[in-house]
Write a structure and sequence with these properties.
The structure is a single chain. Helices cover 35% and strands 15% of the residues. The chain is of the alpha+beta class and 257 residues long. The strands form four sheets. It has a three-stranded antiparallel beta sheet with strand order 1-3-2. The chain has a three-stranded mixed beta sheet with strand order 4-5-6. A hairpin with a 4-residue loop joins strand 9 (244-246) and strand 10 (251-253). Helix 5 runs antiparallel to helix 7 (159-167).
Length: 257
């Protein structure tokens, strides 16, 4: 590939504010020699070992997510509280004021992702015990987010899927009270999407907790769901430590709730 062709390819394959690994750039047809020369002459800057961005614009955290999604083979998308925030439902800023971006994937994130200097930290959530991989690729429950015109969109969970992902974090990382407060504002969930998600969901705790909270809040969409249509497992599930047993759903919940 001639240098001017390689330069054009680099601009096409590596938009501003995004990153790319050396391996991925080679897969796009750029030679190792050209990549190394681009670093030496300043056309490419090092974001992390073996990861680059175009020196005209440093990467943003949304650019990193968009880059990751197009480079990895496993499905990966924003979910949980991060996805709810994009829907305008919740916030995902920690005490330091730095966003925590929740990424959901069956495979672990590459080590370089938290080495790139952006104003966010990335948190991996494994999905092998929550969703089958087919659902992780199901466009019915995913949404595109246009973070910059003309650049690859970021994929994130629909509200219904994101909320079930939040429940998977109860009570270790998210409190019962927080999950309950979130659901109080979700008046317009789609029974059709919930049916799809509850059918595919692999996690009995998440499904039972969802039905307990849905019944507790008596949202209008709850009457369209039939709990016996879904695999809710058998036996008790201890979720709240030192909680009370909720006999209908066979889960322990906080005594004060």
């Amino acid at each position: 590939m001639l240098n001017h062709e390689a330069a054009r390819t680099l601009k096409q394959k590596l938009p501003l504010s995004m990153v790319a690994t050396k391996r991925w750039l080679q897969e796009q047809g750029l030679s190792l020699h050209y990549i190394d020369n681009s670093v030496r002459r300043g056309a490419l800057a090092v974001a992390a070992p073996g990861v680059y961005y175009r020196e005209e614009a440093p990467p943003t955290w949304l650019g990193v997510v968009a880059s990751l999604q197009r480079m990895v083979r496993s499905p990966v998308h924003m979910g949980g509280l991060s996805a709810l925030a994009l829907h305008g439902v919740s916030h995902y800023v920690n005490r330091s004021g730095k966003p925590i971006v929740d990424l959901y994937s069956p495979d672990k994130l590459p080590a370089w992702i938290n080495k790139v200097d952006v104003d966010a930290s990335f948190e991996w959530h494994g999905t092998k015990r929550l969703w089958p991989e087919s659902l992780m690729r199901d466009q019915r429950v995913l949404r595109p987010y246009e973070w910059s015109k003309g650049l690859p969109e970021v994929t994130y969970s629909c509200v219904e899927k994101a909320y079930l992902e939040v429940l998977n974090e109860v009570p270790k990382h998210i409190s019962f009270e927080h999950a309950d407060a979130l659901l109080q504002g979700l008046h317009n969930l789609s029974p059709r999407k919930l049916d799809t998600l509850l059918t595919y969901c692999l996690n009995v705790k998440v499904k039972r907790l969802f039905f307990w909270l849905a019944e507790r809040n008596q949202q209008p969409w709850f009457k369209h769901l039939v709990p016996t249509d879904y695999d809710l497992g058998s036996g008790k599930r201890a979720i709240a430590v030192n909680g009370r047993l909720e006999s209908k759903w066979q889960i322990t919940v906080p005594k004060e709730m």
